[in-house]
Input
Amino acid sequence: LKMKEEENAMKKIVRQITDDKIKFPDEVEPCVSKIPNSGIGVRSKTTINDGMWVGPYEGKVVSLEDIKKIKDTSLVWEVYDTNGAISHFVDGNESSLANWMRYISCPVRVTDKTIHNK
Output
């Protein structure tokens, strides 16, 4: 039963990504997220070493003042300035402005890993 659920979830993911016209680099692939109720996730097909740059996260740039207007912040990333304060946000909700990184969840805590090797 669990295998069938995962298979159905993957079919749904493939449909969504196809509809959104999202392209993935060769090094990563879509998967069912390990975060409960998160839908689509991303996993690496190769080792991602500490300090390796992945990105950029693309989407609509949103100011501190305008963030309250966004109803669904699940695909919004915080961007920090050099002093560690939030500078602005990047909203990946609109698929035409976003890229594959919209499927990587922003960690709740700095210590959380959101990119995991296969």
Observations:
- The CA atoms of residues 54 and 101 lie 9 Å apart.
